[in-house]
Please model this.
Amino acid sequence: MFQPSPWRADFPAIDALQRQHQTYLDSAATAQKPQALLDALGHYYGSGAANVHRAQHLPGARATQAFEASRDKVARWLNVGQTGQIVFTHGATAALNLLAYGLESRFEAGDEIAISALEHHANLLPWQQLAHRRNLRLVILPVDARGFIDLERALQMIGPRTRVLAVSQLSNVLGTWQPLPALLAHARAQGALTVVDGAQGVVHGRQDLQQLGCDFYVFSSHKLYGPDGVGVLYGRDQALGLLRHWQFGGEMVQLAEYQRASFRPAPLGLEAGTPPIAGVIGLGATLDYLASLDAAAVLAHEAGLHARLIEGLTQREGIRLLGLPQCALASFVVEGVHNADIAHLLTEQGIAVRAGHHCAMPLLQGLGLDGAIRVSLGLYNDQADLQRFFEALDQALELLR
Amino acid sequence: MTLPAQADQALEAFAQSKGWEQRARLLMQWGDRLEPLTEAEKTEANRVHGCESLVWLVADAVDGHWRFKASSDARLLRGLLALLLVRVQGLSGEALLALDVQDWFGQLGLERQLSPSRSNGLHAVVQRMAVLASGR
Model:
């Protein structure tokens, strides 16, 4: 049965790409944008840009109002309630770096930071480098063959010396939802701060941070159909209070003298300089659009497509899936065929997928691979996209084998 | 200027190729012609990084003329490397630096393979050659 996407027409780029014979299956890297976002950017720039939080003039007041309205929309999207605040950054990577620098003074030599073996480089390297600076121990929680953090072993590895647990919600390589409730509860009981990298997870289903109960949650706008250059850091109020200011400049300062200064609390105190105003307003418009969709229908559509993707891959001989993908994406290798060759021939046929290490080199090394092909889905993809992918894959493999 | 005979052959073959499938087959054939590297040549020093596949470039200048050997574990990249080598083999450092590699792959109908956004490694190999030729 044919499975169209009722939301495809809301994303003008999908149509444009199709006219260029491109099938976009790389949404886990960045997603295409809805018309509602393009309209919001056009409206903001077309009707008068202004800086936020400083000017008293009308355009400044309007921009500030729209900017702060986006903050509320993000908080509602994540069901933050009264638990904490939304800080805007320049991306998920910037948000994680903010945490690593902002928390730095709280560590003593020998303290431990726990991350998992499947982290994206963005949730590995800031902690790794912090560990080097402060002589800390970076503890790597193992991942089992199915692609889940090995809970039994992880719970033993998170102990009283663990000051921070930082883990992905949904793996960008394996497409597996991680057992966060047990991990977070255990880490909290040990007195550790908890950081969740929601870069992939936030895109697939509504996340409820009051229920999740982490101290920090991070995602990037551009994977959630929003503009690039914008990241989101949610922090629980008490946890935000532990962060030292890390970047200094305009907007974040309360009083400045030549030799000393005092700074604002979060969120503004952590948003030095002019923020990505248009992008933040655009993210707000994207969330309005997403909130207008039938969430259950979106989830069902994505689940249906994902099932077809997995089915198609497992039907084909010699294909090895990485882990047991549950959602959104699947990574695979083909026995006896180099992933770079497959990627080359898929590109020749207008199939946009990702090949390589997916910013998770240690994970791939651990699997004994130097690369894999990743197919990832957005809500605008349909069954015809998958058909084109599988036809192209079959053609490529026929040539290469 | 006159092209090396093998470069002429390459131009002829690729100019006549129609469609991506034929180009891919040709690339694989050309890749098979690459002089294989010995295990001793596959050293870390000869590795070219910035590629999604393993790539080696062995370079030697004899009387001011460059001799290259190259290989990869990816088949299509081996073909691209072969097409690069037939064009640059024996050039002086000066001629190598002056060579418009983009134009060469353009003539072959393979210009997209050289873009810096492609992680296939060809771009990185060309950059390594330029560094070697300039004596940096």
Notes: The first strand of chain B starts at residue 55 and ends at 62. Chain B has six helices and two strands.
